[in-house]
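question for whoever is on the cluster today: can someone run the full assembly for these? two chains, 290 residues total. i dont have access anymore since they changed the login thing
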Amino acid sequence: MWATIHGFGPQIAIALGMPRIHTKCFGQVEYSSEAVFLFPNGMPGFESEHAFVFLERPAAHPFMFMQSVRSAKASFILLPVLAADPAYRLRLADEDLTALGFSAGRQPRIGKDVLCAVLVCAAGEERPDPTINLLAPIVVNLKRRIGVQAIQTQSGYSYRQPLIPPERQEELAACW
Amino acid sequence: MLVMRRRAGESFLVGAEVEIEVLEVTGVRVKLGIVAPDSVLIQRKETQLTRDENIIAARSVRQRSISTLLDKLAVQPPAPAKKEADGQYHVASEMSLVVDGKNTRTAQGRPRYE
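^ ran it for u. tokens below:
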């Protein structure tokens, strides 16, 4: 039912003897060690989480989920950055390029060299409407299976951008 | 906010133990040198904002909030039902996604009006 990102690597295998992750929302999920992505620096606030798997299912498309192998609490909702903003410009700092295994000076292409996705904060007690963090996307080198959260210091992007623009919200409210 | 003008090579103190020196000014960028005790955390403001936001985002991951997100955002509400020749209203089981800016894709959605 759940698998890693289609086309980006081996799917989570459903077989006996596979290691299991305790996910925050989806129960236990079996995975193959080849489906694990390494985050050498962790993420701000989650510095000791270094191994994540990506989960998706057709009904949740285009959202994906990122789950720490070690800790159920470190679980995030992701949206491919181009689905959020088709004109998004990624400018990685040299230290992030190095961490991902790219040479400094050449920017990777979204969807070809890297997967680039924003973290979604779902609506709840703390946030009346869902927001996305365009300032600090998750960037993953698909070949090397290394990821970073890359803070786009000079970009001017917001870390709390409404997922749906206000005019769409009114439109949706009228529909429902 | 206290405003102070300094040139390259000049410094200022924050409290008794933190010293910040302006090392270099080139165009719109300023290079600073900071001397502080180990107990003082020094980080870019964006890192702090991202840390706080990450923690809130992780806390927001709950089955209910995911369902709400998918219901409201991933799947476009069905278009007003068209009156068919036989007089029956028809609800499409496939709905188009609205969040993908470029391509309109379709995904299996739960019909809401039946």
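summary bc i know u wont read the tokens: The longest helix of chain B spans residues 45-59. Residues 76-114 of chain B have pLDDT under 50 and may be disordered.
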